[in-house]
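In the previous chapter we treated chains in isolation. Here, by contrast, the input contains two separate entities that must be folded as one system, with a combined length of 544 residues.
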Amino acid sequence: MPLLQLKDIHCYYGNIHALKGVSLEVYSGEIRTLIGANGAGKSTTLMAISAIIGLKQGEVFYHGTSLAGRAPDEIVKSGLCQVPEGRRIFPGLTIRENLEMGAYCRRVKSAINADLEMVYDLFPVLGERRKQAGGTLSGGEQQMLALGRALMSQPQMLLLDEPSLGLAPLMVEKIFSIIERIAGEGITILLVEQNAHAALNLADYGYVMETGKIILEAPARELLQDERVKEAYLGE
Amino acid sequence: MLNTLLEQSSLFLQQLVNGVTLGSIYALIAVGYTMVYGVIQLINFAHGEIYMLGAFLSFSLVTGFFGIGLPFGLAVVIAVIFCALAGVFLDIVAYRPLRRAPRLAALITAIGMSIFLQNLALLIWGAQIKSFPRAVVPAFLFAPALQFGDVVISWLQVVILTTAVLLMVMLQLIVHYTRIGRAMRAIAQDKTAAALMGVNVDRVVSYTFALGSGLGGVAGILVGLYYNAVYPTMGYFAGIKAFAAAVLGGIGSIPGAILGGGILGLAEVFGGGYISSSYSDGIAYAVMILVILVKPTGLFGRFARDKA
């Protein structure tokens, strides 16, 4: 049974049919990626999973149970957490407060503090600046904060939306190696990326999305060799 | 010569005390506007009516208007709790269904709720001005606490000021050091991101309304005692004034609302005292307009003008 399963989901923005029947699965322990051009519906797919956007049709299953009617906070509580596009950290909150917001659904203070130390170990720069406002960090550091914040929720599965967006190549490499490390801890990942090359190199399996539909899916290694993917997304 | 100088300075001192008292009341109301604006970007025009309800309820409970007269302290506590709940109810009934609607729709609804609540009060209590009978209010409140020369500070003024200061300190502690306060600030900055962190946004908005409305209720009770006048439209004028204070301080900012309330209270009292009492309201608004002209986001504002 897949950990996360989307069955033919449809979403609208007003009159715009943004998702036209998206189906995909992610199995426990995997990294799967969803690649495609700007505006293909990748972020919408993640927002639909997190119940920020309502579904017109279709269903999302997590652990085999439907998420229909669940509020965003209930989905986070069940262990499915999203790192949204553009990081969306809280600029006016300190780094520590941002991380504490990630642990909003948890109650055990000692466990939260232990995880804070874990995040500071993983991202030393966050530990050094824990009292600084989140908005003072650079783009790459904000991405680390967004990842750390999501980890604070003790997720089983992470939805990552364009973690490499707008970052310098060196920082992209760093963020991807951290994602690999997080996956190594047993956290299942669905990664949305425009940087198809990096994403497919990291992932086990990939989906290619175009104008609200999945047009191609295969193990990541095969997609890297696929002529259509090479031409359209890998720039070869 | 010396005499007039003494007279002048004692007049000044008296105005200062009165201005600070009035300002602390405006501040108590203004934080309600600013907190709600911070989390849902709505000017809750019915907030002044919550303040009015606070005054009417405490009056009714101590005088036995509803059948039983309660001790003053108990009446105050019940009135404040009722105001907090009324704020939550107002949000759930009138504003929550419009959360995704254009902002103008919610704003018009807020004005509608303001008019509705004013008329409801008119229906229940009538148009005549009610005043707290001396017998039901603790007598010490009207005794002078401090007196030097012609300057008199009543215990009521002391109580108003200390209550306002204590509540503001409490509010700052809640907003900055509790889980729910952190969630309020997070929602003010990015509602979607807060929801993605597992924050139940509606619940936190309810807490915000409860806090702001409770403080507004306290202000209503204090004003009802201070001017010894309770009437259905009292919330309208105080509400507009406190709203101006919130805008002056920078809507969305709690320290801004406190400072704005203080400035407005002082401007009104000094303007009334030294220029003309019939211009006191006008002077208060003139100060607000001047600040907004120079700094459109208000003193501590972070919201851009097009959002206000």
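Chain B touches chain A at residues 179, 182-183, 185-186, 188-190, 192-201, 302 (CB under 8 Å). The beta strands of chain B are 144-148, 151-154. Compare these points with the single-chain example from earlier in the chapter.
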